[in-house]
């Protein structure tokens, strides 16, 4: 169950990234409720993201990655991940995907002239 939840969090973060940069995805998921309806997040997670949205209007794509990392830590504490190396490997992959999503957001932020 933890493994499925970590994957769901990563999928949620990737989807939130694409919502910010792809108009077609934004059309399909215009708000957080559509993410709940599609099964990418729960009502409790939606409430957390909404409370963060009221505090700041910066993007929140990092939050599901944070949740995934915390869940990997919890799995290690509970013995579901057998050693520290496996935990570090999984956490490194989560961080790598977060970096790639950040890179996509960076490419979307800066316009490159067509001449290049």
Automatic annotation (TrEMBL):
Keywords: Cell membrane, Chloride, Chloride channel, Ion channel, Ion transport, Membrane, Transmembrane, Transmembrane helix, Transport. Signal peptide: none annotated. InterPro entries: Bestrophin (IPR000615), Bestrophin-like (IPR021134). It is a multi-pass membrane protein. The chain crosses the membrane at residues 6-25. It is found in: Cell membrane; Membrane. Forms chloride channels. It comes from the Eukaryota. This is Bestrophin homolog. The keyword Membrane applies. GO terms for cellular component: chloride channel complex; plasma membrane. Belongs to the anion channel-forming bestrophin (TC 1.A.46) family. Calcium-sensitive chloride channel subfamily. GO terms for molecular function: chloride channel activity.
């Amino acid at each position: 169950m933890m493994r499925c939840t970590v994957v769901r969090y990563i999928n949620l973060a990737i989807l939130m990234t694409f919502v910010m940069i792809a108009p077609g995805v934004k059309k399909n998921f215009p708000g957080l409720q559509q993410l709940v309806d599609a099964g990418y997040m729960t009502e409790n997670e939606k409430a957390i993201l909404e409370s963060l949205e009221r505090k700041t209007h910066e993007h929140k794509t990092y939050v599901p990655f944070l949740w995934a990392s915390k869940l990997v830590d919890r799995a290690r504490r509970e013995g579901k991940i057998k050693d520290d190396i496996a935990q570090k490997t999984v956490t490194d992959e989560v961080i790598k995907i977060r970096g790639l999503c950040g890179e996509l957001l960076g490419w979307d932020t800066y316009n490159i002239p067509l001449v290049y």
